[in-house]
Amino acid sequence: MVFLIYGLIVLALIIIFAGLKIIDQYEKGVVLTLGKFSSIRSAGLTYIVPIIQRIVVVDLRIRTIDIEKQQVMTKDNVPVNVNGVVFFKVAKVDDAILKIQDYGYSLAQYAQTALRDVIGGMSLDTVLTERQKIGEEIRKIVDKETDQWGLDIQTIKLQDVEVPDDLKRIMSRQAAAEREKRAVIIKSEGDRDAAKNLAAAATVMAKSKGAMQLRTLQTLDGLGPTASNTVVMALPVEVMEFFQKLTKKE
User: Fold this and answer.
1) Burial of 248 (0-12, 13-18, 19+ CB in 10 A)
2) String of b and e for 110-146 (b: at least 16 CB within 10 Å)?
3) Helix, strand or coil for residue 46?
4) How far is the C-alpha of 67 from the C-alpha of 62, rounded, in Å?
5) Considering 37, 101, 114, 245, which has the largest number of Cβ atoms within 10 A of its Cβ?
6) What is the residue extent of each domain of the chain?
7) What's the pLDDT tens digit per position in 166-189?
8) What is the pLDDT at residue 50?
9) Fold for domain 63-168?
C-alpha cells in the first residue's frame, strides 16, 4: 500500500513537471486543448495539462527569408536574374499557427510570385534604377495577402539584378559614349565662354591707349630669359608715324 502511494506521488510529480513550460520574452505560446485552440500564453512560466493540452511556441522577433534567384522577363523582353530578401515578423500568433501550415515557406513562395509580376511589368532601365520602388511595390502586394496569416511584412529588398553578358557589353559601350558626349559638351561650353571673355578683353584694350603695348610687354616678361626663345618685335603704328614725320622735316 505504501509503495502504491509513493508511486502515485511520483507519477503526480512527473505529470506536474512535464506540464511546466518556460516561454521566453520574445515568444508567445498557442495552447491547443484536445486539438482546439484555447488560449495564448505570454512570456514566463506556464503550465499545460499533459496529453490533453499542447503548446506551440512562436518567435515574435523580426525574421528574414531569402527570395531565391529566378529568371524574370522584363517588359522590354530582357531576361534578368533577380533575388531578394524579406524582413517580417509574426503579429498574430494564433492566425500564424491556425490559418497557414508553414508561414515561412508560404511567404517565400508568394514573394517569388509577386516579384515576377512586378518586374515583368517594368522595363530593364526601371529595374536597374528603381530597386527601392520595386521592393516597396512587392511589399505592398505580399503584405496585403499575408495579413490574414497574422504576418507583418517590414520590408522587401532586391539584392542582385543580373543581366546577360552581351547586354552588359552593350550597356558599357553606351555609358562610355554618354561620358564622351558630356565631355565634348563641357569643352564646347568652356570654349564659348573663353571666346566671350577674350572678345570683351579685346574691346576694353581697343578703347584704352597703350593697353595693347602693356599686354605685349607682359607677354614678353612671361617668356623668361631663355636663350632658345626668339622674339620678333613689331613697332607700333604711332612710332612708325613719328619716324616718318622726322624724315620729312629733314
Assistant:
1) exposed
2) bbbebbbebbeebebebbeeebeebbebbbebbbebb
3) strand
4) 16
5) 114
6) 2-59, 63-168
7) 765 666 666 666 667 777 788 787
8) 85
9) Tetrahydropterin Synthase; Chain A (3.30.479)
